[in-house]
Design goal:
Helix content: 10-25%
Strand content: 25-35%
């Protein structure tokens, strides 16, 4: 039972059966979406975007770009609306070319009235794709934000050589020749969600290029950086409410997430200043966000800090998470029937990933 006003309220029944009476709650949807190659049609000589130009292999025309924006805006406007009529209050995004594509996205008819703000930094990724954060200005007020680079090398010897080289010269070209893997930064945004401090980390960890095993150390390094950020927030405030989200290119069960980040599948296993991963239970049930060779995996994840799973509903608390996988987001025929309806042979689709989301609730 849901009703709309300037602030969103809803009544929970079965989930809070332990309560003697119905209670009203404020709800916010927090989401993440890998937008799969959201490129504009303008050549940027600083990045490798030639494929996504009218003259490129995708024949990426202004009309196709607009169709892609239309598709993405429809999805974003509907994420999480099963329990909350409002589109996501905060949305992390990945695989976006620049700030301009986000500006174009939030101006689409289905989103313009949401008055989304944008936080974005250019990253050193060799393909020119970045992460970013959209937020509804009336509900979330950023107080600080920064991009934190993930500096990794192709092998440990190159990492040591890099350190030695830095002691001798400031020549970036020489240092780059030592084999740094250029990938996405991690975006940390802190702010006030209806007056309560929340921290968001947006991720797009290194891909599995070269094979899962060979590339795993890169994602483990990404997880270590993520944990370092989380630990620093906990050091400032032991009760820090943190949501780390993104396309991790690993599942909840992989070493990067399970061991390095230390995300737990069960709330009762989460220690003080630990992390809870609600996506692991979904993964165990075969729910995925992307498909490859007829197998599903759940690389897109929402992971929350321990203070968000405390049973204190006088402040914002995690309720539940989900994968937004409506039928129109899937291929309807052919070899890849049932897969996410991605861009294909220059035809704009939605994405090769389904979005993920969670709800934060607070008793009124």
């Amino acid at each position: 039972m849901i009703r709309k006003s300037n602030v969103l309220f809803f009544v929970l029944f079965s989930y809070f059966a332990a309560f003697a009476q119905q209670k009203q709650y404020k709800v916010h949807t927090i989401a993440f979406y890998n937008c799969e190659n959201l490129f504009d049609t303008t050549n940027d000589p600083k990045i490798n975007d030639e494929e996504w130009l009218p003259s490129g292999s995708q024949s990426w025309t202004p009309e196709k770009y607009q169709k892609k924006l239309d598709n993405l805006s429809k999805v974003i406007s509907e994420i999480g609306v099963g329990e909350n009529p409002n589109s996501p209050t905060v949305l992390g995004v990945a695989e976006i070319e620049n700030r301009k594509v986000l500006e174009d996205l939030v101006k689409q008819p289905l989103l313009v009235n949401k008055d989304y703000g944008i936080i974005h930094f250019d990253s050193p990724d060799k393909r020119g794709i970045d992460v970013g954060l959209l937020y509804q200005k009336k509900h979330f007020k950023p107080t600080s934000y920064k991009n934190i680079p993930l500096i990794i090398y192709r092998n440990a010897e190159n990492a040591k050589a890099k350190k030695d080289e830095e002691e001798k010269t400031d020549d970036k070209t020489e240092a780059d020749n030592l084999g740094r893997v250029y990938t996405r930064d991690q975006l940390l945004v802190s702010g006030l969600l209806d007056g309560e401090e929340i921290h968001f980390i947006v991720n797009h960890w290194p891909s599995r290029s070269g094979g899962e095993k060979r590339s795993s150390p890169f994602r483990e390094a990404a997880a270590a950086l993520n944990k370092k950020i989380i630990d620093s927030l906990y050091q400032i405030n032991p009760n820090a409410k943190i949501i780390t989200m993104g396309d991790l290119n690993d599942g909840p069960y992989n070493k990067s997430v399970k061991k390095v980040l230390g995300a737990q599948a069960k709330k009762e296993d989460v220690q003080k200043q630990g992390m809870f991963n609600p996506m692991e239970e979904m993964s165990d049930r075969g729910i995925g966000t992307l498909a490859y060779r007829d197998a599903w995996d759940l690389f897109d994840q929402m992971i929350v800090s321990e203070p968000l799973i405390r049973k204190d509903y006088s402040n914002f608390t995690f309720w539940k998470a989900g994968v937004f996988n409506k039928g129109y987001l899937m291929q309807t025929s052919g070899q890849y029937k049932g897969y996410p309806a991605r861009n294909w042979n220059g035809v704009p689709g939605y994405s090769d990933h389904f979005p993920v989301y969670l709800y934060l609730i607070k008793q009124m």
